[in-house]
Amino acid sequence: MISLPVRARPGIQTPPTARFSLRGVLALNPGPWLWGQALLVAGSGAAVFLCGVWAAGLTAGLAAFVGSWNVMLEQRTPAAHRRRLTPVTGVALVLAAMAGFTLSAVHASPWAVIGTGAALTAGCYYLCLVLRAAPPGGFLYLLAYSLCGATPVTTGQLPALLGWAAAGAAAGWLIALAETLAVGRAAEHRAVARAYRSLAALIAATGSERAEAARHTAVTDLDAAWQTVRRGATEAMRRSGEWQRLADLCRYAATAVAAAGALPHTTGRTALDAWHAAASTTAQRLEQQARRGRGPAPDEGPDPDPPPASRHRTPTDATARLHRALADARRSFRTTAPAGHRPADCARYPSLRTALAAGVRRRSFAWRHATRAGGAVLAAGVLTHLSGLTEPGWAMIAAGSVLLASDGVGTVNRAVQRCLGTLVGLGATAAVLALRPAEAVVVLLAAALVGLAQPFLAKNSALAMVVLTPGVLPLSYSGSGPYLPLLDDRLLTTALGCAVAVLTVPALWRRPDAALLRARLATAVRALTAEASGPHAEYIRRRTVLTALQNTGNAFRQALADLRPSQAALALWPSFLALQELGFHLAARPLSTTERDSAARALHGLAEAAEHGTPPRSGDPLPADWATPDARDAFRRLRAALGDGLPLPADDRLVRGQLRGPEGHPLPHTPVTLIDPNGTQADVAYTDAHGRYALRPAGTGRHLLIATADGTTAPTAHAVRVPVPGG
């Protein structure tokens, strides 16, 4: 046992376990305020609604209005993708609306209405998840079904309503086409701009506690940008050469993100500020192109000199690679992009068959979430009907809205937001109904407010309900009699639907997912030494590593965002942090064949340990000249973290002990090195969560055990003698 008179190594970052709080309820989600899209939806919806009301009455206007909701969907996807997808979403909205109208016309029993709504919810939520549809996804179809199902119609009106709903969907498609012609390739440019904005944030977070979260955000936005560019890879765009420019910018961003994530903690602020400005400038130029929809932005002078931190470095240094990638991105705006063809690394979006097959796997989140949504909507409708309330559809809508959250804390936050927003919105609705507005005013107000609520849907559910409630609820008021019972029913059904949705939170608990997290860790470890070939081999390898880290991070954050995160996820979180840092260091520089083979041998044992839940072998090779010192440090921390909470291997040849500080407390995750009698390094490891270590000596005789608690004090040495076996 060794006692060190030094401070303990700084602890590993706290896992991102969410906790319900008032701050979480009131918080706004990050991202831009989409006022332009809101005005588009409001204007187009009002026009379609008023045309239907003027030509055939309020019911026809509602059918056309619901059909035109396809203009809301996939607004941040490439123009070519949106042109193909908008008619499909329009047909789905028409079918959902007609299902509601049909059940209303035949006076179906409440049980049939509730059961059909639950089945439609489960199916739409599932398809939208596996096809990666943008929010609000399946909820929009439940809303269309419920609104139309609450409208009294006759069977003779159904053909006309079908025609009006189809006309509304066609109008939404034409409006979407007009918008894509107006904004050009805005979606692709904005997606790549977001990747460079995240890169700037990652550079600014270097050396701070925000670095780990900034790495994950940067990788996520980079992957989203590449997916958007892939979907926009039409023949016309490739012939214009602009697609090649965006693809190159994505490759430069991948290199820069990997290098920024591998920057030393001691990087000077002058260099960080220069790189932050360069990344922000690239994002700003791309946003300017998105607004204009044509040609590259004008250049703003020559490239800046390399910052001091990148001078006199080797070509493989992270600072040099970051500076070169940002300079390449800047120069791409001054040169004409050559017309090119789609390279081998640009596979199209997953096919429908592949996406559906992935969604039905045993561990797939899609079918679990869809089943949970369908069950919650069914329970909300049944309880509302049994309690004597007149509008079970409102409770179903409330439950479906809350279930847009994919984790426990998010579900509780959205439920509270929905109730508070509805309460405030009912006050505004009462003020509107007290004025007894004309039907045309009600229609115009509904269309305008539904469109203007779009930015709030992405920001905060409470704000969305404050705007939506006075826009939608007056449509349900007949104009005669008191309106207070209508408001009371809306409040009660909303509270009931939200309560049912919260009660389904246990369906999200991931008790058996320790095996999944370990499998994700093992997959990411193996991806660190992935091989690639072709003209963009190094970029493909780098993107493979970053994507594996992103998938692993998503799995951990999903498991840790439940109300009661499992102990297995909490115990494995330090392993992911060390793996993420190691992955960025290996992705930041090219690996020779010798280095890749050496890394593969060193990582093989860690992948096996992560997958099977066994302690890593102490004798795994770790060449002294492998990668960089920071990468080797991350490797040791990963090996130590994978052994936390597991029994040390039973091997009499190992040098064991427990590292304690001057006050007697264990020192976790502290580097310990064993030096053999010849003065060479025999083994190195990190202590586990309890300060324990196990080192493999090179032979017998006197060895030197060196432990360092942090980088600010000298290491402490302790002599140990390894006896002859059996002696």
Defining key terms:
single chain; 727 residues; mainly alpha; four-stranded antiparallel β-sheet; three-stranded mixed β-sheet; 7 strands; 5% strand; disordered N terminus
Could you characterize what this model shows?
This protein is mainly α and 727 residues long. It has 26 helices and 7 strands. The chain has helices spanning 22-26, 35-56, 58-67, 79-105, 110-130, 139-149, 158-183, 186-204, 211-231, 235-240, 242-261, 269-292, 318-331, 352-359, 365-386, 392-402, 408-434, 439-452, 454-459, 461-472, 484-503, 514-527, 537-560, 567-587, 593-612, 629-642; strands spanning 2-3, 655-660, 671-675, 681-686, 692-695, 701-707, 716-722. The strands form 2 sheets. It has a 4-stranded antiparallel β-sheet. Strands 1-2-5 form a 3-stranded mixed β-sheet, with no helix packed on it. Strand 3 (671-675) and strand 4 (681-686) form a beta hairpin. Helix 22 (514-527) runs parallel beside helix 24 (567-587).
Q: What can be said about the biggest beta sheet?
A: 4 strands, antiparallel
Radius of gyration, CA atoms, in whole angstroms? 30 Å
Strand content: 5-15%
As residue ranges, the low-confidence spans are 1-12, 308-315, 343-348
Portion of residues in helices? 55-70%
Sheet with most strands: strand arrangement: 4-3-6-7
Please sum up the structure shown.
With 727 residues, this protein is mainly alpha-helical.
Please render the helix and strand layout as text.
Elements lengths: L1 E2 L18 H5 L8 H22 L1 H10 L11 H27 L4 H21 L8 H11 L8 H26 L2 H19 L6 H21 L3 H6 L1 H20 L7 H24 L25 H14 L20 H8 L5 H22 L5 H11 L5 H27 L4 H14 L1 H6 L1 H12 L11 H20 L10 H14 L9 H24 L6 H21 L5 H20 L16 H14 L12 E6 L10 E5 L5 E6 L5 E4 L5 E7 L8 E7 L5
Parallel strand pairs: 1-2
Antiparallel strand pairs: 2-5, 3-4, 3-6, 6-7
Helix pairs in contact: 2-3, 2-7, 2-18, 3-7, 4-6, 4-7, 5-6, 5-14, 5-15, 5-16, 6-16, 8-9, 8-11, 8-12, 9-11, 9-23, 11-13, 11-23, 11-24, 12-13, 15-16, 15-21, 16-17, 16-21, 17-20, 17-21, 18-20, 22-23, 22-24, 22-25, 23-24, 24-26
